[in-house]
């Protein structure tokens, strides 16, 4: 990653090479990666993420891990398990690098960035996220999490939030960072029920357009939505104004809001499983499609 742009400061690599996973094509090696032009994407829980452009059409995201102290064999086994989980709604892990001083992971780069930046990054832009795109993103992210949960009864992601739902150029959603909570020591409560809660917050965020955390301040979105519903002042205040501006379907928005509230039940035993969250979102979409068809039938000329 070239010094002129954003060479990760003090990156120390030994003679070791990148290890490519599954059948990922070996389109570059460590030298290419270190020479590429890099840009910091952000600092996260597990380290700094970089965008590395190897060639015009070959761009990857590199996550430089901090606080990973485990021996190489254990690290390699965990990474192998992570990369074995292939699903269209999970960000593919392509390669890793392990040495005593440095550990990093190489992922596909997702050109549209995160759901969080699409929702909150550029408010008032001429092309806000439409309702149909939002509910499709919700469904795809739910499917990605469902895939993680399906691997064992206690399997969890551990860090579900809108900045970990990344968007491809064709607006497909992919959940990132799966497996990372098992690499770094964490004091968090890692359970599938906790993921369901976090996903519920993400659904509320999609409908209300409100960020659960902003500039170090936290908004309790489930409580805010419940209180606003109880006050019964109509739905205007509840929905993202970018949705109301484009006359989005209120019934569907309310239905998704209800799924979000179910997921954020304070009692973890009352939260639905991810498979049933997926089914509920699919149902809303089918209901909407049937409604549209009926409307078309009504409007179609008889002859
Ligand atoms: N594969 C990727 N493609 C495109 N952008 C990415 C990719 N991976 C991460 N990013 C972006 O890089 C930034 C930093 O990501 P990172 O996951 O390290 O931190 P975070 O999501 O802000 O916090 P956390 O580590 O707690 O999840 C985020 O804006 C994220 O959307």
Automatic annotation (TrEMBL):
<dbReference type="InterPro" id="IPR046959">
    <property type="entry name" value="PRK1-6/SRF4-like"/>
</dbReference>
<protein>
    <recommendedName>
        <fullName>Protein kinase domain-containing protein</fullName>
    </recommendedName>
</protein>
<dbReference type="Pfam" id="PF07714">
    <property type="entry name" value="PK_Tyr_Ser-Thr"/>
</dbReference>
<dbReference type="InterPro" id="IPR000719">
    <property type="entry name" value="Prot_kinase_dom"/>
</dbReference>
<feature type="domain" description="Protein kinase">
    <location>
        <begin position="35"/>
        <end position="288"/>
    </location>
</feature>
<dbReference type="GO" id="GO:0005524">
    <property type="term" value="F:ATP binding"/>
</dbReference>
<keyword id="KW-0067">ATP-binding</keyword>
<dbReference type="GO" id="GO:0004672">
    <property type="term" value="F:protein kinase activity"/>
</dbReference>
<dbReference type="InterPro" id="IPR017441">
    <property type="entry name" value="Protein_kinase_ATP_BS"/>
</dbReference>
<dbReference type="InterPro" id="IPR011009">
    <property type="entry name" value="Kinase-like_dom_sf"/>
</dbReference>
<dbReference type="InterPro" id="IPR001245">
    <property type="entry name" value="Ser-Thr/Tyr_kinase_cat_dom"/>
</dbReference>
<feature type="binding site">
    <location>
        <position position="63"/>
    </location>
    <ligand>
        <name>ATP</name>
    </ligand>
</feature>
<keyword id="KW-0547">Nucleotide-binding</keyword>
